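Model it.
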Amino acid sequence: MTQVAADDPHPAMEVVLARLARLRDQLDQLTREVRDPLAIRATAVALLHHKVPSVSWTGFYMRRGDELIVDAYQGPVACLVLPAHKGVCWAAMDRGQSLVVPDVNEFPGHIPCDSRTRSELVVPLFGTDGEPVGVLDIDSTRRARFGEAERAGYELVARYLEERGALGTSGGAP
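Modeled.
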């Protein structure tokens, strides 16, 4: 396996996937007995935000009607509501696929919640009916911080959360 520094912004794909797979496994160990979806998402965000280098914001936006509403997150104060079909998060929801944005300033309709953000990765989250119910959103102050390796790794975490039933509201069973 390739050895890289912990803060290398572009480690090899296998290194990134291994790191995020380990974090998914840690999340499973930490939340195995937890049934509250919000507690699971909050733990996921804390783990990812503090264990993945060079990220400035990590969190969820969940669909409520025609809006995406901020959910569990770590980082600077976020946009609380994302209006329908605008910005990177809605683009990922509307397309039903993850988006890697190397330079947010070049993305049409980008919503600048934090003016320091330069790159973004958004992974849509799907409910049991296969429809998008929210997104996992990761920002960095570094341009081109995310690539295909990060996309694939964060998708591992998203699929885990879907399988756990961790996308509903508090109080429900997974």
